[in-house]
Every structure is written in C-alpha cells, then in structure tokens.
Design brief:
Mean pLDDT of chain A: 87
Strand content of chain A: 15-25%
Shape of chain A: globular
Largest sheet of chain B: none
CATH topology of chain A: Rossmann fold
Order of helices and strands of chain A: EEEHEEHEHHHEHEHEEHHH
Number of helices of chain B: 8
Oligomer: heterodimer
Number of strands of chain A: 10
Low-confidence stretches of chain A: 1-6
CATH superfamily of chain A: P-loop containing nucleotide triphosphate hydrolases
Strand order of the largest sheet of chain A: 6-7-8-3-9-10
Distance between the termini of chain B: 54 Å
Order of helices and strands of chain B: HHHHHHHH
Helix content of chain B: over 70%
Number of strands of chain B: 0
CATH architecture of chain A: 3-Layer(aba) Sandwich
Structural class of chain B: mainly alpha
Chain lengths: ~270, ~270
C-alpha cells in the first residue's frame, strides 16, 4: 500500500469535492462487497476505479447515483446527503448525473432519436424542434449524427455505447459515470470510447468516474486511479504513480499476471 | 422437512409483502396519473397490444364454451321441459362466471406472460436501472400504463367472450335444435339482470388489475439470465391463474350473499 489507509479515497484539501462517500458498507447475503470505503470525487477530474471482476466497482457507481443504498455509511452530493433521501426527492438530483451502463441499456422499444430525447422529454418542457436539435447535437458529439431513425437492435456494440453516451449527456450533467465503457469492444472501437471520454471532459468540463479493468483505457483517460480490492481501496494515485507502485496486488493487476494460487489450481495431476 | 416448510413459508410471506408494497407504489402513481395526458399517451399502444393479442383467442374460447354448454345441457333441459330456457343457462354461466374467468385466464396467458418477459428483459439488460438513473420512476413509466391497459380492457374482452358464447348457444338452440329464436332471447332478457352483469364486470376488473400487478411484479423482480426471465413468465401465469380462481370464489360468494340479503331468492324456472 502506497499511502496510509485513512487517506486513500479522500480528496486533497485544495480540491472541490462534488461527491463524497463516507464509510460505505455493502453486503449481498454473506458476501461483503464494500467494507467501509470512503471516497471524494474531485470536480472536473476523471477518476478511474480499477479492480478485478466482481470486486464491487459497479456497486460504487450505483451508490453514487443511489441505485443502491449502503448498509451503513453516507453518500453526499455536494452538501446534500442523498443516501437517505426518498425516491421522489432523488428525481431532482439524478438528472445531474449521466450514467453509461455496461451494455448501454438503450430502450429496445425506442429509436435512437427517441432514446436520446427521452431524458429531455421527461425533465424539460422543450418543443419538438428544440429536442430534435439537441438530439442532433449530442449524436454529433459522439460521431453518430444521421442514425436517428435506426433502432438499438440495428447498431453494433460500439455504436450502442456511443448512443447511450449521447443519452447520458442529453441533459448536460455535471457528473458522468461510466460502467465498463470499453468492455466487449475491439481495441480501435475501445479507443474511440476513450477519446470520447477525454473529449467530453475537456469540452463540457464534467466530472467523470470510470469503472474498468482495462488498464490501457485507465491510463489514457484518468487524472486519478483508485484500485478496489476485497472491499477496500488499496491504491489512490495518478497513472504515473500506479506504474511505479510496488504493492504486489496492484502489480499483478497492472501487469495482467494471475495470482500464484490461481496457477496452482490450474496444475493437472499425474 | 419442517425447516424447509418454515423457510418456504417465510419467503412466500416476504414475497407477498413485497408485492403489496409494489402495488401500493403503483397506486400512488396511478391516482395523480389519471388526470395527466402523458399517462394515457403511454398507455395507448398498450391498449392496442392487449386488445390485439387477446381478442381473437377470447372470441374463439367464448364461442366454443357456449357451444359445449348448449350441447351438453340440451338433453337434460329437454327432459325437464325447459329447453326453451337454454339461453339462460348458457348466458348466465358466461356473464357471471365463465366469461370473466376465461377472459382473465386468456389475458394472463397471452398478455401477462409477455409483460413479464418484456419487463424481465428490461431488468436484466439494466433498462429499468437506466430509468431510475435518469430520475424517472420505473413504476410510473412502465407499470401504470400496463396496469391501466389490463384493468380497462379485461372487462371489454369479457363482454366479447360473453357475446360470442351467447351467440354460439343461440346457434345450437335455434339452428341445430329448432328452438324458436324469440323464446331463446326472451328468457335471457327475463333472467339476466343488471346485477348479474355488474358481478361479471366487477370480477373482470379485479382479475385484470391483479394479473397486471402480478405480471409486472414478476418482471421487475426476475432473476438474471434467460432462465430467470423464463421462470418469471411461468410463475406469472401460474400465480395469476390461481389468484383469478381464488378471487372468483370469494367475490362470487360475497355477491351471492349480498343479492340474497337484498332481493331474496330468485328462481329462474
């Protein structure tokens, strides 16, 4: 571990904190997923959370937007505690977040244009021509203007994620949460998504949180990297710092090496 | 053995409680939603979907049930000299019992399963989570219009079922057995009262609402994967079927007692 445990996840005093998790515990049945993590997300930065599959990275994202409630601990958005808010009050806060789901989560029963227009229709009283114009603008930002009439089933995996991203930014959110944005894509298409994350951060000045186990993506888009392991953050630093980190658990992950126990379990007897 | 029974009982009671909370949340969105234009815009395609999917099969079911009732009852009624009243037996059975139950079961099979599969797939592919993440309540967006469609269309479909069954009974009575058409309709008009139609209507409304809530609940709470969605669809139909039969018994008993206490016994012969 490179830093004292208490400091991992906390923001330096000179950064504005936009989202704060304090001592968040979460378990599913007997499985402890988050064991009292604390995290400060800094405004305007791209924070990447890495870790092995199933370690609870997506669970953190779902706590930030309150799709999940912590068993104990607190979640704050700016100065407001949101983990104990009723659903109806959350409806006013959630449009400030954009969430890119792992598989896009586009609505099958709607065209691309209807998908991107959906949050605008639900949260604003804009006229149809204004909505069309915003949809065109957002699709242009992800390089997909012209496919408004297509249906999600007609799109490739990469296009689906880009349309989902256009939908996530339709209301100009302050924070964009990316859940495994490059998973399942070939390297060139994954790089398109990486470039988009960087572009949106530069052009819109949004705060981004990216959950991934793709180290190429993490290194390219991040200002700050955190590594989650067994319910705790075991690393918090810059992309340069993680390369030089000596913690064997971090090294294994960064270098893509399997653990010795896993190797032993693969040995064939006789 | 006892542990297994206890555990199953606890999980069933917990599931019933969750369903109750789910239904309550739906009602909280439904009442203000009734005066919102957007609710009806969302429900309109579902009205078409429910009606379009179910009407043909309900008309076929009603017709054949009417035919069977007429064919089976004719000999006994003729032996008692009541064959002219065959229409009463066929139509009363349909209006009070068979029409609402058959329409409910057909809607549960044709629409309930499809609703569960659709919502279950949306859950598995995180579309329901996406709605929540956008600040849109999934129950208001997805459940309220489906509930309205089933609640309002099941009585209408029941009416079609009753009508087809009655006409099928007329076909057997008048065309095949030679009973005068005027006698067939005269006895129906005498025996079937507004009360009977109202009982059938109340039952069909209750069946429609219950099966919509069961189908949507099962879709919202299905387990991940294709197997989870498949199992949720099966459970949705089985629970709807059982609830329809249980509700039919209790509502039928209640209205029968109420009728007797208000009007006394009414003989149809």
């Amino acid at each position: 571990m490179d830093r004292p445990t208490a400091a991992i996840g906390d923001a330096p005093a000179n950064h504005e904190s936009i989202v704060r998790l304090v001592g968040v515990h979460k378990r599913f049945g007997n499985l402890v997923v988050l064991a009292g993590i604390s995290l400060d997300l800094r405004a305007g930065q791209t924070t990447v959370i890495i870790g092995e599959s199933g370690v609870g990275k997506s669970v953190i994202l779902k706590h930030i937007v309150r799709l999940l409630r912590p068993d104990s601990g607190e979640v704050h958005y700016r100065d407001q505690r949101i983990d104990n808010l009723p659903e109806r009050d959350l409806a006013a806060i959630r449009p400030r977040f954009g969430f890119l789901f792992q598989l896009g989560a586009l609505f099958d029963s709607m065209s691309v244009a209807q998908n991107v227009a959906f949050p605008i229709r639900e949260h604003t009283r804009r006229k149809q021509h204004e909505i069309d114009s915003i949809v065109k603008e957002k699709l242009s930002m992800v390089g997909l203007d012209g496919i408004q009439a297509q249906w999600p089933a007609e799109l490739s995996g990469g296009q689906r994620k880009r349309v989902a991203l256009a939908r996530a930014i339709a209301l100009d959110p302050e924070i964009i949460l990316y859940d495994e944005p490059t998973t399942g894509l070939d390297p060139p298409r994954a790089d398109v998504i990486n470039e988009l994350i960087i572009k949106l951060q530069r052009e819109l000045g949004v705060t981004s949180v990216v959950v991934t186990h793709d180290m190429t993506s993490a290194g390219k888009v991040s200002d700050r990297i955190l590594m989650l392991h067994e319910g705790q953050f075991i690393f918090d630093g810059t992309p340069d710092e993680i390369i030089h980190c000596q913690d064997p658990r971090v090294r294994c992950f960064v270098e893509g090496r399997c653990h010795e126990e896993d190797l032993k379990s693969l040995q064939v007897k006789g | 053995m006892l542990t297994a029974i206890g555990s199953k009982t606890v999980s069933s009671v917990a599931a019933l409680g969750q369903w109750g909370v789910f239904s309550w949340q739906m009602l909280r969105w439904l009442l203000p939603g009734l005066v919102q234009w957007r609710t009806w815009v969302r429900a309109m395609p579902l009205f078409f979907e429910v009606g379009n999917r179910t009407l043909p099969v309900i008309m076929i079911t009603g017709t054949f049930v009417g035919l069977v009732l007429a064919v089976q009852s004719y000999d006994q009624l003729r032996a008692a000299g009541f064959e002219n009243r065959m229409g009463v037996l066929v139509t009363l059975s349909l209006v009070q019992e068979l029409g609402p139950v058959l329409a409910g079961v057909m809607v549960a099979g044709r629409v309930g399963g499809a609703l569960t599969a659709e919502l279950g797939t949306m859950r598995v592919t995180e579309q329901i989570s996406a709605l929540s993440a956008m600040g849109v309540d999934p129950i208001r967006q997805l459940v309220v219009p489906r509930f309205l469609a089933c609640l309002l269309l099941t009585p209408l479909l029941t009416f079609f079922c009753d009508m087809c069954g009655s006409l099928a009974g007329w076909f057997v009575a008048v065309v095949l057995k030679g009973i005068p058409s005027t006698q067939y309709w005269y006895h129906i008009a005498y025996a079937i009262e507004t009360w009977d139609v109202m009982v059938g209507f109340v039952k069909s409304v209750m069946f429609g609402g219950a099966l919509a809530l069961i189908a949507c609940y099962k879709g919202f709470h299905c387990r991940p994967g294709a197997e989870g969605v498949g199992r949720a669809c099966t459970e949705s139909f089985v629970f709807s079927f059982i609830i329809i039969l249980i509700t039919d018994f209790f509502v039928g008993t209640f209205f029968s007692g109420l009728f007797r206490s208000i009007y006394g016994f009414k003989s149809l012969v």
